Amino acid sequence: MKTKGFLPTTLTVIAILAACQKEDFSIGKVVDSVYTDYTVASVLAGNYAGHGDASDYTWDASSEISIELNGNAIASNSPHVVIDGTKATVTAAGNYKVTGTLDNGQLIVETADEGPVRLILNGVNITNATSSAIFIANAEKTVVVLNDGSENFLTDGSSYVFENAGDDEPDATLFSKDNLSITGKGALVIDANYRDAITSKDGLVINNGNISVQAKDDGIRGKDYLIIEDGDITVDAGGDGLKSNNDEDASRGYVYIKNGSFDINAGADAIQAVTDVLVGSGTLGLVAGGGSSSSLSNNTAKGLKAGVHLVIDGGTFSINTADDAMHSNNNLCINGGSFNISSGDDGIHADSTLIVNGGEIVVSKSYEGMESMVAVINNGNINLTSSDDGLNAAGGRDGSAGGNFPGGPFEYSSEDFFISINGGYIVIKAAGDGIDANGSIAMTGGTVLVNGPTAQDNGAIDYDIDFEISGGLLVAVGSANMAQAPESSSDQYSILARFNSTITAGKLVHIETSAGEDILTFQPSKNFQSLVFSSPDLQKGAGYSLYTGGDHSGTATDGLYEGGSYTPGVKFADFTVTGKVTVVR
User: Fold this and answer.
1) Domain stop point among 175, 200, 223
2) Measured distance CA(564)–CA(578) in Å, rounded
3) How far is Cα 251 from Cα 237, in angstroms, rounded to an integer?
4) Is the dihedral of CA 193, 195, 196, 201 positive or negative?
5) For the chain, how long is the longest CA-to-CA vector?
6) Which residues pair with 121 in a beta bridge?
7) How far is residue 547's CA from residue 533's CA, in Å, rounded to a whole number?
8) Tell me, what's the pLDDT at 163?
9) How many independent structural domains does the chain possess?
10) Which domain holds residue 574?
11) Which residues of the chain carry a pLDDT beneath 50?
């Protein structure tokens, strides 16, 4: 059963991890096993399956009923099309081919039949100054077909006139009280001046189409669910871009994007769901709240926002947001995809658990790069730039920019917060702490390069309980006052070097064996006064030399040199690894 709330799922994960910590601190292994199948498909299996069916998109063309729009008049020879001035009401299931222009009129569907109503739009332009252009008042299922090669336009006015006092529906240019599907290889352009552009009070499935909407409020909304299988979709919305908002059923209220191309500019959230936001593939360009440099009043506008699960299996994302670029009130999992993120707050945030199993992730601007109570990185290429912490394990609900979130309904202790790095390639450039855990850190593999703070009140690595490392390469440079290395109980050896003065960004730091073998040459991108280094190459009892400056003939990637040879600069110290953590001064 899928849980809507924040507490049960969080505490379940915490209980498992806390128990594991007390025994052998194999956090990453436990979380990895729990979320081995944490994919779009596995989460989608807990949701209502939707109403789409392959048979919805095929029909006998000879059965089509013609509806001709002629400015201030409508013509049809079918008894199932009731015409009243500039209003045409479809009263029976069937296939209705609509053509022409309608001035200040409306196309209505109202039928109790069990079969679907197909509205085949073939060059339609409908305006309505006081209500929806198309209003599905009652139908088992309606399919709006955008005929191949056709261009279709729907426009409403800035105020609606309702039949009864107290009514608030319809409230969208294309509005359906029941299940709605959109398909076809034609185009649909909607100018929504009242509120939403497309709304279904039940489920909304977009199978295909070139859809472009401008909306005063939300762009495209399916209350029970919004499923987009394919299409080319452009949304310019004053409110949310894509949305599902059924908060009464844990199996509904979700957005699922299977594929497609999206260009969304939203005043509020670009994509938002009460329960789950799920993306299998596609190309998504998302701007929310005016972007990361916005001075607009809505600084809570997020890119992808989920109430329960945010899961990405793949796709190409460009996200520019006033608030978090990717946000879940509970769990967030990235299994693949390419991400370019610029955020006015967190790049990627989960209130409970953040899992990264793959992907190419670049956060070029953020307050904090990645943040969650529990953060687990199993794979992926990650590059984080932040004005505060880079990778942060902190708790509470995300109310504003900041690491420890005050005012939450639950109290947390340091044992509740974990960062587990089991693989991947991670580069961090942080003005605050590079890696910060209000609890513990475990690293079993991967490569982590931290260009940490220059200010003395933060550190390249900061943790409250312990940091155990058993594998992988760790290089972290930053200020010296709060510099921390992994714990002496770790399986892998580490060094912590504190330099006598600040070393200028761009100067090399180099470690070689007593035989002259290069085991580290790194070029920090920021000024630094400390170095934390851990590698399987460090051996107990072996002698090493630490240099600063000099030159290297190899190739540098993110400051880390491979191949070539080192021309010595200034030797800082000779040292011998005597324990799991060796301090070099």
Assistant:
1) 223
2) 29
3) 27
4) negative
5) 96
6) 98, 146
7) 13
8) 85
9) 2
10) 494-584
11) 1-34, 399-410
